Here is the input.
Amino acid sequence: MCDVAFRSGIDLSQQVLPGGDDYVYVPDAANAIERARSAVDCWTDPIERDNAQNMLASLSRDVDGGQRQLLLRVSLYQRSRPVVGTAVLDLLRAAV
Here is the structure.
């Protein structure tokens, strides 16, 4: 899947989703984002912290629009901000 977004309450738990290392499925997005935000708030590098907070804010907008689960493509996040993207995805994975 390339350049696909799930928004406005698509129940991903009822879908057949791609698997593999290039995807992160987050079943409870609101909780995972909140936990990731708490961790990111402790980061000491202000630029990385701001970039991570912006990524999480973007994901939060999907949740605020009714999307309860997220399917994130690792390669897209690593391409735009390799270090921060990987770190944020690791935090979201850990919250599962």
Q: What stands out?
A: Strands lie at 23-26, 70-73. The chain has four helices and two strands.
